[in-house]
Write a structure and sequence with these properties.
By secondary structure, the protein is mainly α. The protein has seven helices and no strands.
Length: about 190
């Protein structure tokens, strides 16, 4: 039987390991990215919505959200604290952006009711999590990650003719994600 050669030489593997941050510095880097999203919310709140500087900060904050999770998994430095900090940063970011863009959201009443239903399901999930696990947890399911990404991108369509359609699609996916999250909380 022929042996498959290893594509990585011992020098290549050693170089790759040296390039990776230590566990402590990697965890610190990832947590600083999450915390920076919270810090970026202050200037977001102070500037006018729908301006170029607002959207630049919005994009930078969104990139920290993408990078912190990616790097934590890549470097193997995921932690319970990091997951909670990421959830807190997401929550603060959504509140800050929602506050700034609220007046620009010209949504039909039915869509506001759908958003209220999603908020209700998420609240029930938080209560269920506390009852089942003795702590409030927000699960990072694929559906929740997709919802966050679509919401992030979708906000940039405010004012465009197809914004309401985009908002409905995101709301439907968000409702599915919230229901799925509740199922995972109560079944595990």
């Amino acid at each position: 039987m022929k042996r498959i050669p290893n594509r990585w030489s011992s020098e290549s593997r050693a170089e790759l390991i040296r390039a990776m941050p230590s566990r402590d510095s990697g965890r610190l880097t990832v947590n600083l990215l999450s915390a920076s999203r919270i810090v970026l919310c202050l200037p977001l709140l102070l500037m006018d919505a729908m301006t170029l500087p607002f959207w630049v900060l919005y994009l930078i904050a969104g990139l920290t959200d993408i990078l912190d999770g990616f790097l934590a998994r890549r470097w193997g430095v995921e932690s319970r604290f990091g997951a909670r900090l990421d959830s807190l940063a997401d929550f603060v970011f959504v509140l800050a952006v929602g506050y700034k863009l609220f007046l620009w959201l010209k949504l039909p009443a039915a869509l506001w009711m759908m958003i209220g239903l999603i908020a209700l399901v998420k609240t029930v999930n938080a209560i269920s999590s506390y009852v089942v696990r003795h702590r409030i947890e927000y699960l990072h399911t694929k559906a929740n990650k997709l919802t966050g990404f679509l919401l992030f991108i979708g906000m940039m369509t405010i004012g465009l003719s197809y914004f309401i359609l985009v908002a409905w699609v995101i709301a439907c996916i968000a409702l599915f994600a919230a229901i799925q999250e509740g199922h995972f909380i109560r079944s595990n």
